[in-house]
Specification:
Length: 267
């Protein structure tokens, strides 16, 4: 564990150096934040039915989504790992005296956390200062905030464990682009990044509830907004723990199985 902690710390410090990229990302996130909010405003202003999420909850959901984008999106990837697999340089990684699963898990986690630390505070500051009705709100209680933090932490661990299957699939297909499109499309839709799960048709909500993607974004962001009460959030956190144990266990087993059949050509 000490080796993995060292990898996490070094990659975290390294990731914090890319400030120019972070500022470019912040500008993009403001743009998409306002676009999403205006689109939802238009839908809500013409709706004749009572929506399962209020417009205020949706606006807070969108700002949190933009602030913590690096922690909740599957398209956030490490191209270096794809190159290692497709070029054959994975052979060097296999010589290291530790598990490649834990090593890559720590690298990917550090990359997401460093990017989120650089971007989230400016986005949140502006989101709390913009005029009404576009302003982000505080959570309804301290309990909701603490549960949100726990759910967000577990959510990013689940997301990294899912993304490990993305890299695993490249061992089999040798096509990072194909795997990335499939994982990103499924993950972002069912995690509620395009549309919060309560606003989906009922039959789609049933499918989303059976998959782990919802636990990475939709669940923690709705806990903060108060759309999920604290009592239900505790049950959701237990479900997150179950998914995390299952995905990590299955990932370690699958990596061991795939790495037994890796063939590296060349000299």
């Amino acid at each position: 564990m000490k080796a993995y902690y060292s990898v996490l710390r070094i990659r975290l410090l390294n990731g914090m150096q890319y400030r120019a990229a972070a500022w470019a990302g912040i500008a993009t996130q403001f743009f998409f934040g306002f676009i999403f909010i205006m689109a939802f405003e238009a839908f809500y202003s013409h709706s004749t039915h009572q929506a399962p999420m209020s417009l205020k909850e949706v606006i807070t959901f969108v700002w949190l989504q933009q602030a913590f984008l690096a922690l909740i999106t599957l398209w956030f990837r490490d191209s270096e790992l794809f190159n290692l697999i497709t070029s054959g340089n994975i052979a060097y990684e296999l010589c290291l005296p530790w598990s490649i699963y834990g090593f890559w898990f720590a690298k990917l986690l550090a990359q997401r956390v460093s990017s989120a630390l650089l971007r989230c505070f400016p986005v949140l500051m502006v989101a709390f200062l913009v005029p009404e009705p576009h302003r982000m709100t505080l959570p309804p209680s301290a309990a909701n905030f603490l549960l949100f933090m726990a759910a967000l932490l577990l959510g990013v661990l689940i997301l990294v464990s899912i993304s490990m299957f993305l890299y695993l699939s490249v061992f089999l297909t040798m096509s990072p682009a194909g795997s990335l499109v499939i994982f990103t499309m499924l993950g972002e839709f069912f995690s509620g990044l395009l549309l919060p799960v309560p606003l989906m048709p009922e039959w789609l909500q049933k499918i989303a509830n059976l998959l782990p993607f919802r636990m990475t974004a939709d669940f923690p962001l709705r806990v903060y907004s108060g759309n999920i009460p604290a009592s239900e959030a505790l049950t959701g956190i237990l479900i997150q723990l179950g998914w995390l144990i299952l995905l990590v266990g299955l990932g370690i087993f699958s990596f061991k199985k795939v790495l037994r059949n890796v063939v590296v050509q060349g000299g």
